[in-house]
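Z., the sequence and structure:
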Amino acid sequence: MASSIAWGITGAGAFLRESIDAVKKLLLRGYRVTAFVSRAGESVLKIYGFKNELEEALKGPYPTGIIYESSEPPSYPSTGRLYTGVYRAVVVSPASMNTIGKIVHGIADSLVSNLAMHAVKARIPIYILPVDAYVVKSAIPVLINRELCSRCGECLAALICPTRALKQHPYYRVEIDLDKCNRCYKCLEACPHGAIKFDVEIVVNPVPYYLEVIKRLEYIPGVKLLHSPMEVLEVID
């Protein structure tokens, strides 16, 4: 049990792919991993098409598995495991600025911030990858080019969408509900003007104010900052 890792996933798209890859490598090395996934993290996993992949990877003996905040009572009883010697370390990657702010101020009102606060009290090492600390390449899951989209009177992509993720809109022509999108890509074939794009790469730069908040993590006992998810493989071994 002492070779088990508690891995918190929050609602950040940057480093998400790399975090899942790091979890898989830990499993290959014989570690058991529990993913503690925030509500926003669950949504982002689905939006990027990673939710099923993570669920398939984390099938195994206790405590391997996924704990979704959406399935937990408000007191987050699953984090009580931290006092039973189950986990040798806690990882939060990717860590959104929302979760960082809560941890810095000792707020434990979400699954992942609660996990971190109990790790501090249980004196379990915590490794955090704050996505807003670095220049990162991320991706917008689905982007609609409004100039191209405006050419159509009726959206053919919305008509063919099997989950009704795309809907006609009186002013925007069409809008998308990312929680309903299953990335079937039928809209790409249906749109005659190529107005819909998936996984559009963007670059996000650090903000000085956020960097000052992130720096305060270093004053919390047991917390160490990561530069990449794969760094976990080095610091845990």
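Residues 83 and 121 are 9 Å apart (CA to CA). Strands lie at 4-9, 32-37, 65-68, 87-95, 126-130, 136-144, 166-169, 173-176, 196-204, 223-225.

Let me know what you think.
H.
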